[in-house]
Design goal:
By secondary structure, the protein is mainly beta. The protein has one domain. The protein has one helix spanning 2-6, and strands at 11-15, 18-22, 28-33, 42-43, 46-47, 55-60. The chain has a two-stranded antiparallel ribbon with strand order 1-2. A two-stranded antiparallel sheet has the order 3-6. The longest helix has 5 residues, at 2-6. It starts with a helix and ends with a strand.
């Protein structure tokens, strides 16, 4: 658990444009989030099902 916490996001922001997370400097691998369905959320222009997640993105140690 300590290893997961050490590599976890240091800041997370959710708004109507998406989810943004700041990871510790040098983080590499895959960052993932599991997201429940929220009224009005869409994925690829379509309403989401009962459960949206998981969603993953490459963490390359740089800024995107």
């Amino acid at each position: 658990m300590a290893r997961l916490r050490a590599g976890g996001a240091v800041d997370v922001r959710v708004d109507d444009g998406g989810v943004r997370a700041v990871l510790p400097p040098g983080t590499r691998g895959v960052a993932g989030v599991a997201a429940p369905r929220f009224a009005g959320w869409r994925c690829g222009g379509r309403p989401v099902g009962a459960y949206l997640g998981p969603v993953a993105a490459e963490a390359s140690g740089g800024r995107r």
